[in-house]
Design a protein that fits this description.
The protein has helices at 384-392, 419-424; strands spanning 19-21, 27-30, 53-58, 71-76, 87-88, 109-111, 127-135, 140-149, 156-160, 164-171, 174-178, 181-185, 189-193, 199-202, 207-214, 239-241, 249-258, 261-269, 274-279, 284-287, 308-313, 320-327, 330-332, 349-356, 371-374, 398-400, 405-411, 416-417. With 445 residues, it is mostly beta strands. The chain starts with 18 loop residues before the first strand and ends in a 21-residue tail after the last helix. The longest helix is centred in the C-terminal third of the chain and has 9 residues, at 384-392. A hairpin with a 2-residue loop joins strand 17 and strand 18. The strands form 7 sheets. The protein has a 7-stranded antiparallel beta sheet. The protein is 3% helix and 35% strand.
Length: 445
Amino acid sequence: VDQSSSKVAEMPVEDKYKYNSGFGNEFATEDPRCPGALPEGQNNPQKCAYGLYAEQLSGTAFTAPRVANQRTWLYRILPSVKHVPFKKYGGNDLVSNKLDEQVPNPNQLRWKPFDIPKEPTDWVDGLRTVAGAGDPRVRSGLSIHVFVCNTAMKDKAFYSSDGDLLIVPQQGNLDIITEMGRMLVKPNQICVIQQGIRFSVNVNGATRGYVLEVFSNHFVLPDLGPIGANGLANPRDFLTPVAWFEDRQADFKIVSKYQGHLFVAEQDHSPFDVVAWHGNYAPYKYDLANFCTVNSVSFDHMDPSIFTVLTCPSAKPGTATADFVIFPPRWSVAENTFRPPYYHRNCMSEFMGLILGRYEAKESGFNPGGATLHSMMTPHGPDADCFEQWTNKELGPIKVAEGTQAFMFETSFQLALTKWGEETCKKIDEEYFQCWQRLEKHFKI
């Protein structure tokens, strides 16, 4: 697949990279500069073509059921083991799994847009942990981060030993080099880079976005049940990069997120030296404009699970470690129905972000680049203005959320805030609760 354009009018930058299409597929790809680099009929021959090394990257246990087993064979110029020992990384102390520093906060929370630094800051150094739960040491839980940066990662690569990263750019394009190839990810697109895969992010100017990191499992497409075989995020719209390599000597820094801390190792060559690879453990991107929404065409507001793009299952059936849910432009036609999201208390935690536009249930105060958190069993719902408007609105077919893209990281875990997320960033809107104070009593007998 040659993806040469995006459906997002605000981001006209051409995507010149090549991709393979499909979700969870077994791919086989080699850089056209080295035809025949992929071995035929076996994974690790005695001698690889072009003098390459064979290296397996396992994303699941060897004995995981075949339907869930994920691994990729890499054929690279040098194996990834060639580096000096890791040391504590001193460039960023705001990535953290310190979730017991703060007193738990059950309130409805809203963050104003996170500041993008003026001093040169790359993606790794601009990563900040907002909230999380669990512990990567026992492969249970998740972290929610934001990134704010303005310069490219020069001779630097990053990977997470803790979990898979779902990356949501909000402002600025992410030109990402991975071990498996290159991706251009724009606002209103997402990418997933799995545990252990090394990557580098190049940006051009002020850049901001969100990251959901899951420790326990990999993201999958939600089951469609009675919806049928098609709809929501269709597998063919997920794009995985084709093999690309560079043979470059440089003083390279490899930054690893390990047990919630950042470490760095140095090596004398680029880690992006994979000439060919085959397998089903590889990064991918997805354009949210391709999401096929389903909704009620009779009455009532449907549960937001119908907008799930990806889910990370837990051991409990039907209950996710985390869901990635979007609220895209769509038609609303339900009759005799309060159409915005209903008032709600939830056994899940809901962290929301806004990529562009205005969120339909709160058109003021929740701005692109900001966030909200409605914690487990904390009440939430439309503000007073939204309630009054939609209670009295003349109903008919209405296109909602035009020019808007809000999303939600929903998790079955209780989320704890980091010190940076609650205090240091100085972005929590202390007046958020006021949006519900003008709700009036309409009860009459």
